[in-house]
């Protein structure tokens, strides 16, 4: 078969890898570089992801792919540190002692929170899918723990829709992030960046005869007899990794419009460390962004020669026209960073950064085979429920490839 894969992100490339060789595969990617949300800025001395990334020890599909591509020795495990900025100061929350010293919760509340986190891996996501996270936390842990610990996370991630997000998403997030020892969270990163994973995938696909066409934004998707026409070229079947509503718009099929949110992520390099050695700082104060992630507090500073910082915000609708200047001005003021110490900065706007996991989201997940010869997979797939991840994206790509192989035109 001749198969068209729309979208050259991790899901699309993983699907193409499983189908190439046995089939003729063409990947159409709208951006100049494949990788989707895992694409990178290629600077003179190093490459760095345009959106912050790390992986987890439980990412079995991603780790298997890394091994298959001969990159296992490049995967290193690092200690991630976290903190909250409240009232203009950062409270570290990495070690048990730091959590005990956290000034915005009582000792009893900290004990209740610790026991709650320990029980997160036993959560029943099917039941929690119908329960709002805010209500669940208030009932289980009380208003103070919700306001001082969970509300900043939900607000930074989902903004005004935070009260609609399901407890299934929150508990999944807690379970994923609870892989930590006494010195912090265990996080994975590929030496040289995840660009090495994308480059290795592209090299393997090229060796298998797969064509990856960049700079191609699909504008037409039409069912024809025994196949599909994509921008005037016929294929036996199509895998679309676009959001379902975008595939529906292109194909005129009544696919569901899932709730998505966008992200505005400013990456910058600076001479000084803004977060006092902490990797991930959630902002509890009022700010135009929800988190500041200092990449060089996870990876060694010496690899880059400058501090790499992500300033991250999620939004609904469209971000402010001046959000780049807004981020920089607030960041410099809030963290006492002279603007002259910023070496470079780049803003990435991603309109479909990820689904909003509202209550009842599980029932919204669309059929991965909505029409003869048309398959859909991506961040919205069941493999990425109840929280999207690189691992879920690889799993979604591999699962949809298997569905194509089992399908008979």
From TrEMBL:
Pfam families: Amino_oxidase (PF01593)
GO molecular function: oxidoreductase activity
UniProt xrefs under InterPro entries: Amino_oxidase, FAD/NAD-bd_sf, Zeta_carotene_desat/Oxidored
Amine oxidase domain location: 10-404
The protein's name: Amine oxidase
Taxonomic lineage from the root: Archaea, Methanobacteriati, Methanobacteriota, Stenosarchaea group, Methanomicrobia
């Amino acid at each position: 078969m001749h198969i068209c894969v729309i979208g050259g992100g991790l899901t699309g490339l993983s699907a193409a890898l499983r189908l190439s060789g046995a089939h003729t595969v063409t990947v159409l990617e709208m951006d100049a570089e494949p990788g989707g949300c895992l694409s990178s800025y290629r600077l003179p001395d190093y490459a760095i992801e345009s959106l912050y990334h790390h992986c987890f020890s439980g990412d079995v599909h991603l780790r298997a792919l890394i091994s298959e591509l001969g990159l296992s020795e490049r995967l290193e495990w690092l200690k991630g540190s976290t903190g909250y900025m409240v009232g203009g100061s950062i409270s570290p929350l990495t070690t048990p002692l730091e959590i005990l010293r956290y000034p915005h919760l009582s000792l009893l509340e900290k004990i209740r929170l610790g026991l709650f986190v320990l029980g997160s891996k036993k959560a029943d996501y099917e039941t929690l899918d119908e329960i709002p996270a805010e209500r669940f936390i208030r009932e289980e842990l009380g208003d103070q723990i919700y306001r001082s610990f969970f509300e900043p996370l939900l607000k930074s991630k989902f903004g005004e829709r935070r009260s609609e997000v399901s407890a299934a998403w929150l508990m999944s997030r807690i379970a994923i992030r609870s892989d930590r020892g006494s010195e912090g969270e265990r996080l994975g990163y590929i030496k040289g960046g995840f660009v090495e994973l994308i480059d290795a995938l592209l090299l393997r696909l090229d060796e298998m005869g797969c064509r990856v066409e960049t700079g191609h934004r699909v504008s037409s998707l039409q069912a024809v007899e025994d196949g599909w026409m994509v921008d005037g070229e016929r294929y036996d079947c199509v895998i679309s990794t676009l959001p379902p509503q975008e595939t529906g718009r292109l194909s005129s099929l009544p696919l569901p419009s899932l709730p998505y949110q966008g992200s505005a992520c400013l990456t910058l390099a600076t001479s000084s460390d803004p977060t006092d050695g902490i990797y991930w700082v959630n902002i509890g104060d009022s700010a135009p962004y929800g988190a500041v992630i200092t990449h060089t507090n996870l990876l060694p500073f010496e690899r880059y020669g400058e501090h790499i910082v992500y300033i991250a915000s999620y939004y609904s609708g469209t971000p402010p026209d001046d959000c780049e200047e807004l981020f920089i001005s607030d960041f410099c003021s809030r963290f006492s960073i002279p603007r002259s110490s910023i070496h470079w900065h780049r803003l990435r706007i991603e309109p479909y950064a990820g689904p909003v996991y509202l209550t009842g989201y599980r029932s919204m997940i669309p059929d991965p085979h909505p029409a003869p010869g048309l398959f859909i997979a991506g961040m919205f797939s069941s493999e990425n429920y109840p929280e999207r991840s690189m691992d879920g994206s690889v799993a979604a790509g591999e699962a949809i490839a298997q569905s194509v192989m089992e399908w008979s035109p």
